Amino acid sequence: MRMILLTCLTMLAFASNSLLNRMALAGGEIDAISFALIRIASGTAVLVLIVLVGRRGLPLFKPGRVLGAVSLTAYLFGFSIAYNGLDAGIGALILFGLTQIVMFAGGAIAGEAVSRQKLVGAGLAFGGLVWLLWPAGDVQIPALWASFMIVAGIAWGLYSLAGRGAGDPLAVTAANFLLATPLCFVIPMFLPVQLDPMPISNFGISLAVISGAITSGLGYALWYTVLPRIGSAAGGLVQLSVPVIAILGGVVFLNEAVSLRLIGAAIVVLGGIAYGLIGQRQRRS
């Protein structure tokens, strides 16, 4: 039961990042690059402070730190920039669909058993997402913005895989954030597109700080705690619930419309996740 609650809390943190990012950019409170920079800086400050107060060591030079820092950087920028031109639903489908593929592939390469029931559950969940997020009418997905979200999806999958063997999840997450911070401040100079900055409001800064310090920093540390217990394949599967949670949060907090399609697709997604995870738990028992 404790692991189920921790997993649910982690998914809520992930969904909150989407809501906070969408709220900030859609409201014109801050630009994508500034949001990502404040997010990584605030997350780093909180995590390093907690680790130092607890007198833990920062594993800056342990195996996996380079992959963790680089993939975290790619995810942060890809995620923020993509939402300048992508519908939130399309972006979520690209992000977590690719995350699932990367984590399943990584688990299989590492020799992790991927059962037929887990594959069926993933198929049901992914099918529910397609039903929920498929663009209605003649909608063209902008290739440039979609490419940023593709990078974010692959990067988040790699970041999750890098955390499978995290010894001290909080210290490892702090080390990843600390190493990623200088990368984040250098990368904007080499982006292939010109992103004009906009005036930054105090509200936009607050949203970015919350996203960095709480739902990203502490949320990712919690994810590194949960992931080794459930495995990479199940981790990719359970993350498919995040777009559904984010859209439901949008209905409650952003006054987005609710529909029978949304309700039905949510049932399919969560049902597929439950089917795959219940099968895994029965085999372990």
Write the layout of secondary structure elements.
Elements: H1 2-26, H2 32-53, H3 65-82, H4 88-109, H5 116-133, H6 143-162, H7 169-186, H8 202-230, H9 232-238, H10 241-253, H11 260-284
Helix pairs in contact: 1-8, 1-10, 2-3, 2-7, 2-8, 3-6, 3-7, 4-5, 4-6, 4-9, 5-11, 7-8
Task: Label the structural class.
Answer: mainly alpha
Largest beta-sheet details: none
Listing every helix as H and every strand as E from the N terminus to the C terminus, the arrangement reads HHHHHHHHHHH
| Uncertain parts | none
Q: In percent, how much strand structure appears in the residues?
A: under 5%
Instruction: List the total number of helices.
Output: 11
Q: What's the number of extended β-strand segments?
A: 0
What is the 3D form?
globular
As a percent range, the share of helical residues equals over 70%
The whole-angstrom Rg is: 18 Å
CA distance, first residue to last residue: 14 Å
> Mean pLDDT, rounded to whole units?
82
Key attributes of the depicted protein:
0% strand; mainly alpha; 285 residues; globular
Characterization of the model:
- This protein is mostly helical.
- The chain is built from eleven helices and no strands.
- It has helices at 2-26, 32-53, 65-82, 88-109, 116-133, 143-162, 169-186, 202-230, 232-238, 241-253, 260-284.
- Helix 2 runs antiparallel to helix 3 and helix 4 (88-109) runs antiparallel to helix 9 (232-238).
- The radius of gyration is 18 Å and the shape is globular.
